[in-house]
Design a protein that fits this description.
heterodimer; A: about 110 residues; 4-stranded antiparallel sheet; globular; B: mainly beta; Immunoglobulin-like; 6-stranded mixed sheet; 5-stranded antiparallel sheet
């Protein structure tokens, strides 16, 4: 089936540094998402993105977070600066449409902030 | 408020038994997806089932929109089915935001 890729699979950084998580969504998909899962806890929505703009963001999407997809390349999540509580697995997803469109998830990037 | 409730929280079965997992929603939804999360964390999409009954191999999902619930039936369970099963819904008229349940942890014993 359609695949979403995420790079890197693991990232370890020091608190206060910047990190960029990369997502290569399914090629003809138009909607993109980031979700966050802290170890042992529930998967939670962060943000969705369409036509170059954020459509909705959750309370977890702090001011230090930003997303973009310049010129149809990777869909990225940037955190600057990072905090200890940002340690989690971040999953990227994409869909062709919304309002009933199936979402396809990547394998996740495990972020550890020291 | 937990918008997506999954039950049971955990389930232990013998190999070859059938498993029945339940998901209920606090609001109406137009999208339901079932996922399997491997012990290492990787998410596998099992079934996308906004309404009615859908089958894939040993998996059958039934979603009853009016009753705000969905179920996942696993027939003839195997040891490799062990892991966490997640149910997720999209809020009606929302823009793709999936809300996940807390999962059912399934353990299949030989």
């Amino acid at each position: 089936g359609p695949k979403v890729l995420q790079i890197p699979s693991h990232q370890i950084i020091d608190m206060g540094q910047m990190v960029t998580l990369n997502c290569d969504p399914v090629s003809n998909h138009l909607y993109f998402y980031w979700y966050k899962q802290i170890l042992g806890q529930q998967m939670e929505f962060l943000v969705n993105f369409y036509n170059g703009k954020v459509m909705e963001k959750s309370k977890l999407f702090k001011d230090q977070f930003s997303v973009e997809r310049p010129d149809g390349s990777y869909f990225t999540l940037k955190i600057q600066p990072t905090a200890l509580e940002d340690s989690a697995v971040y999953f990227c997803a994409s869909s062709y449409g919304t309002g009933g469109g199936e979402q396809y998830f990547g394998p996740g990037t495990r972020l550890t902030v020291l | 408020e937990q918008q997506v409730q999954q039950s049971p929280a955990s389930l232990v079965l013998q190999e070859a038994e059938n498993a029945e997992l339940q998901c209920s929603f606090s609001i109406f939804t137009n999208q339901v997806q079932w996922f399997y999360q491997r012990p290492g964390g990787r998410l596998v999409s099992l079934l996308y089932n906004p309404s009615g009954t859908k089958q894939s191999g040993r998996l059958t999902s039934t979603t009853v929109i009016k009753e705000r619930r969905s179920s996942l039936h696993i027939s003839s369970s195997q040891i490799t089915d062990s892991g966490t099963y997640l149910c997720a819904m999209e809020r009606d008229y929302n823009q793709g935001k999936l809300i996940f349940g807390q999962g059912t942890k399934l353990s299949i014993k030989p």
